[in-house]
Input
Amino acid sequence: MATGHSPADDVVYDLVSIQYHALQAATLYEQYIKDAEGHDDVIAFVRECQEQDAQRAVRCHQLLGQLTSEDGLSS
Output
């Protein structure tokens, strides 16, 4: 992985954007589950999406930490 990334880099911005949208979606899933009441297959799918977004947000957090660590910041 390349080093020397600052918080203003495109890659950092992109990861923050992906993380933001994954977390934003997480707040909507409970409504989607309520809307799907009586449709167990749809509820299972929404929960699967919810879990994937949660994992995506965590992975973005990890990558951002690596990119912006003290050793990775550009001077």
Observations:
- The two ends are 17 Å apart (CA to CA).
